[in-house]
C-alpha cells in the first residue's frame, strides 16, 4: 500500500490563558494543555508528535491501544503519551533526566482526573542500562512510539539499538519524523535493513513521514 498523504491538522483550541509557554490541543475529545520550555529540545512540541497524535486518533481500529502496553522513547513534552493514555493504553513515557520534570508535569496535569490507566514516567538514555532498567524478563511492549527522535545528533546508533532492544516479535514501532538531513534518511535505511518497515502516511507540507516497523 502506498502511504496516504495528510496534512497536520492544527488541533489547537483557543487559549484559556495568555502564558507564552503553554499550548492547548484537542485530541480524542479532550483538551490537552502542554507546557513547553525553550531551554531544551525535548521540551518543545515538534511536528512529528502532532502527526502521530492525529494518526492515532483517526486510526483507532487499525491501531487499537486499549489495554495495550505502550512505551514512548524520547517523549519530550508528553503529548503523544497523553493521547495514548486517553486511548486506553498502559503508557510508559521515557526521556533524558533533564526533560523528566516537565514531562511528568504535563502527563500528570492532563491525566490525573481521567478514568484511565495511570501512566509512568521513567528515565531512559538511549543505549545505556537497558538490561538493568528494563530487563527483558519483566518488560515487554505492544507498541513503541517515537516522534522526531532523529535529527542531527550523535546518538543515532544508540537510538537504533534501543529500538531493536524493545521490539520483540509482535511489537509494533510507530515512528514519525520530520526529515531534514541526510542523516535522517541514512537512519531510515538502517531501520529498513533490520525491520519490516512501511510508510503509513506522509505530511508533505511539514516533511514528516510516519512509519510502521
Structural class: alpha/beta
Helix content: 25-40%
Query: What's the architecture in CATH terms?
Result: 3-Layer(aba) Sandwich
Mean pLDDT level:
91
Which CATH C-level class is it?
Answer: Alpha Beta
Instruction: Enumerate the strands of the largest sheet in spatial order, edge to edge or round the barrel.
Output: 1-9-10-8-7-4-5-6
Question: Would you give the CATH topology?
Answer: Rossmann fold
Order of helices and strands: EEEHEHEHEHEHEHEE
Q: Per DSSP, what share of the residues sits in E-state strands of 2 or more residues?
A: 15-25%
Shape: globular
Chain oligomer state: single chain
Low-confidence stretches: 14-20
Total DSSP helices: 6
Radius of gyration: 16 Å
Major beta sheet summary? 8 strands, mixed
Total domain count: 1
CATH homolog superfamily: Vaccinia Virus protein VP39
Q: How many angstroms does the end-to-end distance come to?
A: 14 Å
Q: Let me know the number of strands.
A: 10
